[in-house]
Write a structure and sequence with these properties.
With 748 residues, the protein is α/β, with parallel strands linked by helices. The protein has 23 helices and 23 strands. It folds into 3 domains: 7-42 and 78-205, Beta-Lactamase, CATH 3.30.450; 303-453, Reverse transcriptase/Diguanylate cyclase domain (Alpha-Beta Plaits); 479-729, EAL domain (TIM Barrel, Alpha-Beta Barrel), CATH 3.20.20.450. The strands form 5 sheets. It has an 8-stranded mixed beta barrel with strand order 14-15-17-18-19-20-21-22, surrounded by 5 helices. It has a 5-stranded mixed beta sheet with strand order 8-9-7-12-13, with helices on both faces. A 4-stranded antiparallel beta sheet has the order 2-1-6-5. The longest helix has 51 residues, at 50-100. Bound molecules: ligand C2E and magnesium ion (2 copies).
């Protein structure tokens, strides 16, 4: 039982071993396979050129051919040796056999044996009896020895005619030697027979054969190398070179010369297909690039194209030391065209402009649409600024010529900003910016203006940025203040109100006039919080004066066009009034004539809401803004303020009073009060009184002054406070108490 168990256990262990062995083999085979495949991967994972593959293949073929021929030479060596040895012995034994024909017996042949034994390639020769006993030999060592002749072969040879089939056998006792040959000799005179024995020197024969074999090998190698080279050359010319040309063509993405195969073959077909697909791809790419750089509406290049071209022209200008002019043309009030006659008409206007610009441009100029109603023109090689301005003027005139659009006759104004490389900037980005700056200056100058960028424009832009930054912090840090300028009733001399005028004392630059910073605030949107602050401060101050028991007057606050367009202006004002507990009748807003003439419907709505709130509206700088009388009737205004420019000449004794008179009469006809601003002299004051003007404002009656000073002024006004007295109009304001001239209050 135990034994059986032991046996089983052994068998199991054997089978386990066997399996273990098989598993080991498997593992090593797998390892080998993995190794091979990793080698293959390493080889195939790298790019191996066709040329190298062909060279490797041809080398392999050449090596195989050389090896095969070497094998053949070696294989043939033995039989060659045998044949050579046989041929050597046959030659000698033929000569001896021939000599024997004329002899009587073996004794006569001895000298012949001796003679032939010395022939090259022989070791010796002997004549023996048919029984094999050596009768005479060239080698003394052979004397008395026997040849071991094969009886059968000997009989067969004796039956054959003379000189045929020599027998080969060994010399007894002289050892086995491959160069031994025997043959029957017939002495025809006696009819006797003997055996001729010849021993060929096989070493010599072999060494000669080896030399021959080496020569043969050398020629073979040369032939194989030549054949392989010729094959390689052929394969190179017919396959490798065309494939390499194709590769270069494909890799260069068609920038190299396309491959043109000589004879029509598969490579030619592939080349043609490749060339066609690359051409198609290039054409597609070119089309896409063109589309990406083109403005769809006008067919001109777009902003990207413009900048690219500009960079190229700048580089060319740099190389050739040439000037490059850059122009940005913008259509005036293009928005109105879209709004009034529609977007389709707007598109036509843009296309017409593009056509005109293209038509006017000189050879080499680039015209592009930069976006909206803005066009850019690059003028390489302009001679000087005048040259560029001349072209700009020509473009503006051409664009501005009247044209028909359907039934309408239209005229489209435009402005141009101009800049020059290299004096205004040396890269595309800077030049576009400077041209833009010049354009905004041109816009300010008005329709048809062409402005050449000057460094001052840039400085002005920097100045604007500084002002904006400082104003923002001044507003945040409460560094602004309000001055108040009195408005006086012309008949009674009583103060009827005050205009709140903002003042900013800059920490480093001193007082900055509102005419400088208000436009900056308007551009940056900062005017909105600024107006809020002015409203708040003016209402607060007015409330304080009222609480102090001073005469109740209205305070006028200037608002900008941006404020007027904001939907929340009414709410802001209502909240401010509520916050300070001020009745709306004591607040007046001054809006300029030009402000109300833009977006008339919106503005009328806002003004009506304000009016219904109880807030007064005054039209400032009246006479400068081409009011339409029809609109004027609809404006809910309380006052018209005659602009200072008319007041200046009102007492010049010529016809300076004509316009003020017209305004006064018009205002009265509309039931609106008139105030004249900028009254500086008694003559102006008197003339205005004679013309029927209701109120005056100006240095003559009082300069803008700080709140505390204004308070004194108000107290001195007739019925202006508890102890008020009438203002004596016979003296200028500076001579009166409470109206000390304040230089900071003068207009810019
Ligand atoms: P404006 O509303 O027409 O204000 C009258 C300007 O004329 C004031 O200039 C005032 O100082 C000046 N002025 C008054 N009387 C005379 C005079 O007899 N002779 C001369 N030569 N000038 C006189 P100011 O304060 O420099 O303000 C200029 C402009 O700035 C104002 O013109 C107004 O449009 C604007 N502005 C002033 N304060 C504010 C404000 O708080 N908000 C807004 N949005 N604009 C303001
Ligand atoms: Mg004003
Ligand atoms: Mg004014």
């Amino acid at each position: 039982m135990d034994q059986r168990e032991g046996g089983l256990a052994q068998a199991e262990s054997v089978s386990v071993n066997v399996q273990g062995g098989a598993a080991g083999d498997d593992a090593s085979a797998r390892g080998l396979r993995a190794h091979l495949s990793s080698m293959y991967g390493a080889l195939t994972g790298h790019f191996v050129s066709v040329r190298i593959k062909v060279v490797a293949l041809m080398t392999l073929v050449g090596a195989a051919l050389v090896l095969m021929s070497a094998g053949f030479v070696i294989y043939n060596f033995n039989s060659n040796l045998e044949q050579a040895a046989y041929a050597r012995s046959a030659g000698v034994s033929d000569a001896v056999a021939h000599a024997a024909l004329d002899m009587a017996g073996p004794a006569d042949i001895e000298p012949v044996i001796d003679a032939v034994a010395g022939a090259p390639g022989l070791k010796g020769a002997a004549v023996a009896s048919l029984g094999g006993r050596i009768l005479h030999s060239s080698d003394d060592n052979w004397a008395g020895k026997r040849l071991q002749l094969d009886a059968g072969l000997l009989d067969e040879a004796r039956r054959l005619p003379a000189a045929e089939v020599p027998t080969q056998d060994q010399l007894e006792g002289a050892g086995h030697y491959p160069g031994d040959f025997a043959r029957i000799l017939r002495f025809s005179q006696s009819g006797e027979e003997a055996v001729l024995f010849v021993r060929v020197d096989t070493d010599k024969v072999a060494s000669k054969l080896v030399v021959d074999a080496w020569n043969l090998m050398a020629w073979l190698v040369i032939a194989v190398v030549l054949a392989v080279l010729t094959m390689s050359l052929l394969i190179h010319r017919t396959i490798v070179a065309p494939i390499e040309a194709l590769r270069d063509y494909a890799a260069s993405g068609s920038r190299s010369v396309p491959y043109r195969g000589g004879l029509e073959d598969e490579i030619g077909v592939v080349a043609r297909a490749l060339s066609e697909s690359i051409d198609a791809r290039n054409a597609g790419e070119a089309r896409l690039a063109k589309l990406a750089a083109t403005d769809g509406l006008t067919g001109l290049g777009n902003r990207t194209y413009f900048k690219d071209r500009l960079a190229q022209e700048i580089a060319a200008g740099e190389r050739g030391g040439r000037m490059v002019g850059v122009m940005i043309l913008n259509l005036d009030n293009f928005k109105d065209v879209n709004d009034t006659i529609g977007h389709d008409a707007g598109d036509i206007v843009l296309q017409r402009t593009a056509d005109i610009l293209k038509g006017c441009a000189r050879d080499g100029d680039t015209v592009a649409r930069l976006g909206g109603d803005e066009f850019g023109i690059i003028m390489p090689g302009v001679k000087n600024a005048d040259d560029a301005l001349h072209l700009a003027g020509r473009l503006v005139r051409a664009v501005g010529a009247p044209f028909r659009l359907g039934a309408q006759e239209l005229q489209q104004g435009a402005c141009v900003g101009l800049t020059l490389f290299p004096q205004d900037g040396r890269d595309a980005e800077v030049l576009v910016k400077t041209a833009d700056l010049a354009l905004s200056r041109a816009k300010q100058e008005g329709a048809g203006a062409c402005v050449l960028y000057r460094h001052e424009l840039h400085l002005r832009a920097i100045e604007r940025n500084t002002i904006e930054r400082d104003l923002r912090s001044a507003l945040a840090q409460n560094q602004l203040m309000l001055f108040y300028q009195p408005k006086v009733d012309i008949a009674t001399g009583r103060v009827t109100g005050a205009e709140a005028l903002i003042r900013w004392r800059h920490e480093e630059r001193g007082f900055i006039p509102p005419a400088t910073f208000i436009p900056v605030a308007e551009r940056s949107g900062l005017v909105v919080p600024l107006t809020k602050w002015v409203l708040d401060e003016a209402c607060r101050q007015n409330r304080v004066w009222q609480d102090d028991g001073l005469m109740k007057i209205g305070v006028a606050v200037n608002v900008s066009a941006i404020d007027l367009r904001r939907a929340d202006l009414t709410d802001t004002i209502a909240n401010t009034l509520i916050r300070h507990g001020l009745s709306p009748q004591f607040l007046e807003l001054e809006v300029t004539e030009s402000m109300v003439m833009e977006d008339v419907d919106v503005v009328i709505g806002t003004l009506r809401r304000l009016r219904s709130l109880g807030v007064g509206i005054g039209i400032d700088d009246f006479g400068t803004g081409y009011s339409s009388l029809a609109y004027l009737k609809r404006f809910p205004v309380k006052r018209l303020k005659i602009d200072r420019s008319f007041v200046q000449d009102v007492a010049d004794g010529r016809d300076g009073d004509v316009i003020p008179k017209v305004i006064i009469d018009l205002a009265h006809a509309l039931g609106v009060k008139v105030i004249a601003e900028g009254v500086e002299t008694a003559e102006q004051f008197e003339t205005l009184r004679a013309l029927g003007c209701d109120e005056v404002q100006g240095y003559f009656v009082g300069r803008p002054m700080p709140a505390a000073e204004f308070e004194v002024f108000l107290r001195n006004s007739p019925a202006g406070g508890l102890h008020g007295t009438a203002i004596d109009m016979s003296k200028p304001a500076g001579a009166r108490r409470g109206s000390k001239p304040d230089m900071t209050g003068s207009a810019a």
